Structures are given as structure tokens and as C-alpha cells.
Amino acid sequence: MSSAPMTQDELKTLVGRAALAHVVRGEIVGVGTGSTVNKFIDALATIKDQIRGAVSSSVASTERLQALGIEVFDSNAVGELSVYIDGADEIDGRGHMIKGGGAALTREKIVAAQSRRFVCIADASKQVQALGAFPVPVEVIPMAAQRITRQFAAQGGQAVLRLKDGAPLVTDNGQHILDVRGLKITDPLAFESEVNQWPGVVTVGVFAHQKAQVCLLATPQGVQTLQYD
Length: 229
Ligand code: 5RP
Prior knowledge:
Elements: H1 8-18, E1 28-31, H2 35-44, E2 53-56, H3 59-67, E3 72-73, E4 81-86, E5 90-91, E6 97-98, H4 105-113, E7 115-123, E8 136-140, H5 145-154, E9 158-161, E10 163-164, E11 167-168, E12 176-181, H6 188-196, E13 201-204, E14 206-207, E15 214-219, E16 222-227
Parallel strand pairs: 1-2, 1-4, 2-3, 4-7, 7-15
Antiparallel strand pairs: 5-6, 6-14, 8-12, 8-13, 9-12, 10-11, 15-16
Helix pairs in contact: 1-2
The site of ribulose-5-phosphate has 17 residues, from helix 2 and helix 4.
């Protein structure tokens, strides 16, 4: 009798647990945001006595970490972190990612930049040949949203203001999110650099400068480790 295929939720649990092997004991770990990271946080609680604590990339992750008894440090209160563990909406064959489906992209990029290694945890549905099928999240200062929308339209992108409960979603930083469809991202590094310098853009959800060094990819056959450096 063959067993039932693993659900996406079970794959996330599997990879969340596998990430524990990348946590440096005795140190502070950088923690991302999202449903896959929630599984990692739950797993992290089982070794909380072996780490000093975490730097968190969102209010949601902070609340989950603290509820499980894991100390959360201000990013300004600590130096470089050895590892940052986070999910992705898409990851390509070089470790470039689209992130921000959970609206936490700015703080995610900040904690990633503070860390020597980015370990991405994802299920196989997130692996792509080229970035861009998932709408690119861009955190913007609200007064610039219309002009940035026109700048994306000039590049063939359709930017839509993200809503929550019928009103513009407000990020942990008090800003808005545009989700941009229809972009052809042939050079993620150049794309990230260009969009980042548009006035009013807080963060673009392409992580090429802060790419992953490792991806733990959950598949029905188990967790694969992909290295990019
Ligand atoms: C949040 C993110 C998440 O890492 C990304 O959206 C993946 O989330 P999930 O693990 O729920 O699929 O970038 O801003």
C-alpha cells in the first residue's frame, strides 16, 4: 500500500526542522517571516536552551518567538549574525529570490544583510528557472505609489496596491506594498539596483545582492541541500 503524498504543510514542517542543522549553537540566529519560517520557529523552540536568541524580521515572527520563550534582540544591539534563515516566494538556480509575499521584505533584507549566510527554506514549488512569475512586492512610501506605478508600467509591469480587509495594507514600517506583475527579470542584480534607487521605493522584493548561499528544498523524496557559493 503506497502512503499518501506529503502535503505542502508537511513539506514546510520537514524543511523547518532540517534548518536546525544550520543554527550555530551558542549564538543569535536571524529569523525570517512566513508560514515556512513559522515551522522553523516551532522547531527552534526545541533547542532554545542551546542558542542565545534571535533577531527577528517582523512583528509576527517576534511574537511567535517570544511566545515560545526565545529571546528577541534588537538588530542594533548585536553585531554580525552567522546565519539568517528565511523562506522565499521564488528562488532561481543562483540563489536569487523574490520575497515579500508576507510584506516583511524590508526587515528581511536588513537582517539578511547583517548575516554572513542566508539559508533559504522552501518547498519545491518555489524553485524557478527565472524570477518574475510571482508578482514582485515593492515596499513604497505612500505618496510615491502612483509615480512608481507609472515607472513600472513604462517597463511593462502592472503594479497593484496590496490591500488588507479592503484598505491599503500597512507594513511593520508604516508603508504600503505594490505587487508588480508582468516583469521580465533577466538580470536580478541590475533590476534590484535600479528599482532600489527610484525615489519613494523603500525596498524591492528581489533579493539578488542579499541572495541565498544555501537552499534547503523540501521534496516528497526528502530535503535537498542546494549550494550557490
Ligand atoms: C515574507 C516572505 C516569505 O519568506 C515568503 O513570502 C514565503 O512565505 P511562505 O513560507 O509563507 O510561503 O518573504 O515577507
